[in-house]
Amino acid sequence: MYQDRFGRVPIMITALSILLLSVGCEVALADSINEGAFAINSTPYGSSYEDWTIKFWQWLLSIPVSRNPAVDLSGEFCQEQQEGPVFFLVFSGSGGADRTCNVPAGKAILVPINVVECSFVEFPAAKTDEELHTCATEDESSNPGLFLEVDGREFKELEKYRVHSRAFNFTLPEDPWLPVAPGPSRAVSDGYWVILEPLPPGRHEINFKASLADPTTGILFYSDDLKYVVNIQ
After folding, report:
1. Bridge partners for 64 per DSSP
2. In the chain, which residues have pLDDT < 70?
3. Which of 74, 143, 169, 183 supports an S-S bond with 213, CB 3.0-4.6 Å?
4. What is the DSSP string of 138-171?
5. 52 Cβ contact partners less than 8 Å away, ≥ 6 residues apart
6. CA 219 – CA 221 distance, rounded (Å)
């Protein structure tokens, strides 16, 4: 970069550099499919979609069942251990829930539309990472039903938001959410995720639904319907 003889950078050059950087970031992060979402190949806040899905599972699995957001029907525990620039919404796994949640202004929101993790502690027959990959892939290839609506606007082409993770480590606490023994384990995640750009202050409604069916018979074996009232403060 050009400097004058006193080591100063001209203001015009500095301002131009900032402008180019900001435009570049916007192009890299903007989603061409759904306005208001981060592109699936982007790196929101320096982490890829895959990284954020791993962070989600490590967060959720570390919370005791007594305060775990997955078993909370009202939103009472939605802020539990929520740190960092992305706020995690959660499925229920039990048919659905209606939750009200306060979210700090400026945070992106991760929506786990239809997701799964397969771990050694849940599937002790699995002995290798490859077997975990197979487990997760097969689950999320079972005729997935996908739906996401934000403030009445339905998102489209959700099948393009599938993320399959690398194997990762996690630790279950005492009194874990999963019905297994506490301690460390390893898992692989698969599924459909959307990271929403920060919403403006005020009240918003987010609804996402998931279903899985046997590919051969068409019989439904999983269904979930989540309704969030999100207050951005």
Report:
1. 176
2. 1-28
3. 143
4. HHHTS--EEEEEETTEEP--GGGGB--PPPEEEE
5. 44, 86, 110, 193, 195
6. 6
Query: What is residue 94's predicted lDDT score, i.e. its pLDDT?
Result: 81
CB atoms within 10 A of CB 186: 15
Quick check: helix, strand or coil at residue 19?
helix
User: What residues have CB less than 8 Å from 124, skipping those under 6 apart?
Assistant: none
Q: According to the model, what pLDDT value does residue 25 have?
A: 41
Matching residue, tokens 């802020």: 79
**pLDDT at position 224, please?**
96
**Tokens at 1, concatenated:** 């970069």
Site of tokens 């959700």: 158
Which residues make beta-bridge pairs with 186? 169
Beta bridge partners of 207: 149, 227
Distance CA 26, CA 5 (A): 35
Token pair belonging to 2: 């050009």
d(CA 109, CA 86): 5
pLDDT at 142: 92
Place of tokens 């499925």: 91
What tokens appear for 56 in the block?
């989600």
d(CA 149, CA 206): 6
Please state, in angstroms and as integers, the Cα–Cα distance from residue 184 to each residue in 37, 74, 91, 172, following that order: 33, 29, 23, 6
Predicted confidence at residue 13, as pLDDT, reads: 30
Look at residue 218 in the predicted model and tell me its pLDDT: 84
CA distance 117 to 178: 11
